[in-house]
């Protein structure tokens, strides 16, 4: 079987690389077509590249974040189109980055992009039932066009390395882009609350809310807070992550936070880093409290601080949950397993032979 992969990114997004790896492990050949040329020229370039291989594949796969490419893909092929969407374009632009109101030209444009993308695809890959329900209602998409599936990680990049020891001081990690969805302000506030405890806070990331973080750190003696803004190479990133004792997920009550399962969730599971997240519908479909993950109240720095302190004093539970999360990843979330879920769905529903 051959799949033609399309995207408008320079590099393959992490949320695609795990699928492509898994597809190859299931015997699928990948034809990779990508073009990130600014403006409309990328569509012309993709069209020309696709025309050369149009008869050579069985399924067209549109990669993560390429919402605007899906209707175009539908126009250039009669073959099934799978879109690794996970979330909506509208959520990223309007809800998360606040680039316009819902009734603004940008809001209407983003809604239309999603409406056309989700309805043009034969099958959309979505990361939880809460998001399926939202997309179906918001963008008028039949639920039969959506499949609940997770993305996992590329296991060549992220894996458990037993040679990396934990830091001597209990260290709590927050990694990722500093966007309104993430609730980074509650992580910093928890560091302030626990500034007199023997706990270190490590932030790996930069972004829109960086000035807010800088201001918050000036309100207390933040010697317990380490902030690395620069992009790390993958080996250094793995080390900086795995030597910590607990990773924190999103903490806000923004819509995208409520619906999303962040990529670092899967990184934590495969690296045996216990994961503490705000109680959101999306993540709670995946991780069971005190079994494969931990939860705290949303937008509540005090509850987060209390939970961190409680877990610091319960290393046995931390270890058990880390092992359970690792087992969950190996049982359900490895690349070859996730890719097979998609392939089986396509075959069982006679979308492919």
TrEMBL record:
Instruction: Extract the Pfam families matched here.
Output: Glyco_trans_1_4
Q: Which domain of life is it from?
A: Bacteria
Q: What is this protein called?
A: Glycosyl transferase family 1 domain-containing protein
